[in-house]
Amino acid sequence: MVGRVSAVTATLVAGLAGSADASGVRSLEVLSNRADLVSGGDALVAAQTSGPVTVDVDGRDVTSAFAVRPSGRLEGLVTGLKVGANVLTVRDAGGAGRRITITNHPIGGPVFSGPQITPYACNPNASNPPLGAATDAQCNAPTKVELLYRNAAGQFVAYDPANPPADVQQTTTDAGRTVPFIVQRVTGTANRGIYQVAVLVDPLEPIEPWSADQPWSRKLFYTFGGACGTEHRQLAPGSVLQAQPLGAGFVVATSSLNIYANNCNDVVSAEAAMMTKEIVAERYGPVRYTIGNGGSAATMQQHLLAENYPGLLDGLTTSQAFEDHFTQVQGSLDCRVLMHYFWPTSPLSQPGHASAAPNALFPTAAARQPVWGSNPANPDNLCGQKVLAFGADRTELVPTANVACGLQPAQVWNATTNPTGERCGIADFMRAIFGVTITPDAPNGKGKLAVDNAGVQYGLVALQDGRLTAEQFVDLNAKVGGIDVDGTFTAARTAADPDALRIAYETGRVNSATGAADVPEIDNRTSAQMDDTGFHPAFHSFTYRARLDRSNGDHANQVIWLSRSGGVVPNQFDAMRRWLDTGEKPKDACFMAGGVEGDLSCNGTWTSYGNPRLAAGSPYTLDVVKCRLKPLSRADYAVTFTDAQWATLQATFPDGVCDYARPGVSQQPPKARWLTFADGPGGRALGPAPAADAFAEGTVGGTVPATLALTVAPASFGTFVPGVADEYTATTKATVTSSAGDATLSVAGPGHLANGAFTLPEPLRVQLAKTTWSAPTAGEDVAVTFTQRIGATDPLRTGTYSGTVTFTLSTTAP
């Protein structure tokens, strides 16, 4: 077998003629958001200029909005943008300059989350302060701006600058500036939610995006809320009057759509956070970094925003952490079907909540513990709490429920009496992400659900180590069943919708932890959260860590703090500030009584448990939604089944049982970050943020034309030897000529060399001896090295393996 890199092509990418770079406009950018995701009709814009310039939007002169600010740049807040594309141009006296297209979206949304849920009830008066009646169907209302101060009692109360009170506290910002503790709070509407923003201000100085005399630190503390609801109504945001970050000079901001109890859709949560951050930037200037904060379902949002919409959050301060949302939906499925099996006459039964007789094979909590995988101290409580939170009267898996949905019973779907009604399940709430299936009893469609328990062997780990009998194991798995998309218990196991399953992975709804590895996180679990008997078991911190390790090779961005009774935990906000400001990363620790600081086993005094899916043999990453199957085999079990028991297992698992040695069905890293669902379910990548183009009007080139030239010779590895592990190298050269002020040589390859229908398992690697130039060059040879690894067991087909590699020589300064 011969391996070669053949038919090497060179693609030349050239910029504009040199006269544009000689203009008086050296740079142009939108500061308040990506230029293609702006909302509300305004944008904060900055340019580096020399000499007089004019600024226009689609020919409308907006030069008066701009001035040279304390930053030394020309900055201005552009208003009056129309919905859609707006071309902003900055032009010097000679007619050269730069332009950028700003795509504006309605302040009522959506921007990238796809079609909004309907019906939806507006109530701007839900906030404190109330905003009055909505002015349109998008729930917009007039913005309110207040001045508050922190008094001697630690309360935030109204501040009257005409009559300054005597009991204003002082505060010292993280820049060391001591000022009166006076706060501006802004309450408004965006994306059909209600946002609030608060910031430390000097009311005697101008409060503008470029103000240099205001005490805020250009840092943002963004809060998220927990629980899970599919509310179809406008609700109140959480409080932004948080003394510690405000006193340090941080803006504190949030939206009602960042409370999962209101909006259990992380894509809409990301959109709301982006729009609120844009409002912050347009009022107070660009944000240096953003710290996310919140516990429970707020951690799902923080993890998913960091993973899928990088740049929205720069540091995470979490507590009661979960990996993501759909891991918990999967957990709800397991808990509900197991509760239904254990208490067949009352699926919601558990000690303290109902008196139904339990399954005779599992008469006690101790008997059920091996299946739960939970803390033996209170084994039923783990799933009991989850079922009570997402049970028959809630909306996680039950589309007919209207609790936490915000609709009247008459508005809710019913297969017989109201087939066109609104369904309240999580799949229906996220139909813009996953899509719907049209059925006769739901002509508007049923949301596609990505949960699955086909092939799952509940209690497998306990069976193998002798804590569960063969009789218990067989009976449990034969009878546990599943839940259908209508929330009804079924004898058959639950099967994930194939499209929803693929989308869950491709769009990052199941968090692979590949994108968040550069975002620092301090995960703080208090003593009350560490007993694994409630709704927030501690193992989730460690399963998320396992994902980080699997995807990135380490968990350098994640710090876990545990605390036992009497332990004193450092201040999480201060620790994250130091990490982001100075790079001083805290360390994992368990804080115990008497000032003792131990490891994550709390010096051997604490154990983390699990859940039913882990107790069924799931990998510790807990991110296999639908497992691949393998045939049943008696040899796989440490127990002996009777022939009758084996026949029952064969009938229970006709297609096989979970093979957790392989990745799950459709399991893959996200296809891209920054997806938009405006075009439909599944999403598409927005791509890089738009950048400004340079232009010159009425000019001609000079005596030296803009020149980029590139030639690349083919390369060959020679002969690949089957059955022998080796790493082959081949070399060639790329010859570069450039008249540009800078140039970049990049390479994109075929991924894997191919021989007809056969491809090598390992990817081709390409290394360039030089990739950048800061000055012109002519006829310069650059060494190119190709590396191909062949494994001892890699199947090789007779013939030639080859591939086409594209080399690109480009410039931004031709």
Automatic annotation (TrEMBL):
InterPro entries: DUF6351
Pfam families: DUF6351 (PF19878)
Domain DUF6351: 28-669
Annotated protein name in UniProt: DUF6351 domain-containing protein
